[in-house]
Amino acid sequence: MKEWEDQKTKLVASIHSASTLDELEDIRITALGKKGTITGLMKSLGSLDPDKRKEAGQLLNAIKEQVASAIDVRKVTMEDAALETQLHRDRVDVTLPIRPESNGSIHPITQTIDELTAIFCEMGFSVADGPHIESDYYNFSALNIPPEHPARQEQDTFYLPPDETGTPRVLRTHTSPVQIRTMEKTTPPIKIIVPGRTFRSDHDATHSPMFHQVEGLVIDKTSHMGHLKGCLIDFCRAFFGVDDLPVRFRPSYFPFTEPSAEVDIGCTRAGGEFRIGKGDDWLEILGSGMVHPRVLSGCGINPDEYQGFAFGMGIERIAMLKYGIPDLRPFYDTDIRWLKHYGFVPLDLPTIAGGINR
Hints:
single chain, 2 domains
């Protein structure tokens, strides 16, 4: 049995001196494969006396485990070394200028947010932001949305575990909670837009579980429905680049505005081609209305003294309409080919003076 120990010592030494994974695998097959030396010794135990067979079997099992363990340890060491070498070889110095062929593109969502921000900021709006995780109060109750409203149901809303105080939490379903937070901490006049991510339990060619909205809010002592109409007509015509774009307002219902209106823009589908502008059809793009007195009162604003209007629209929707993107899902597929086709030149920021439609 001394020769077994000597054989084990030689095998362990050859394992430690192996320089490649292929060489290590050859050693493993030579020792532990079906026709390996240790495997052959294990098969020969049957010819020994019962007393010697037990002792020899224990020794061979120990040798086998030691050899297998040495192979595993050496393999991990060599794989780690190979990975470290590859990482060092593929290392990129991010402080270097990018290669000309690696120029990226601005995503249509980012471009659209920049465009609408430029338009509304020229009107005197400022940009506001808020958390993605909201309490049930800010997302629903403060907006005059009753407990039985369908939007509160789990098939439409992503509910999260309550916080440490037991307050129900959701992934915000619209950016309207930012309006409430702004009214709570700001003395009117208020004039903000709120672009940002929102979340709803829906997914198809025109809906996504995560999408973007922009909402606007104006609160002062004099704003009325005529100001709302003028603001949105000017926005639609500037954004779509059609000076005489037909815009109409239809009566609607939203819990947080009264009166409420949906806004349609003119379009045509003549000859199977869709085009925004004068035509024989209409397309709904956003909702709007005068802020409900209950919403104002809940935020500590006297509705007898102040009034105002609010509006909201889906950013993906208006981006798809303006740039002819037929399906919502590729927005988030991280397909570089799609981005190269629909993307925009970096640093080509839209402005009213420089142009929105480029």
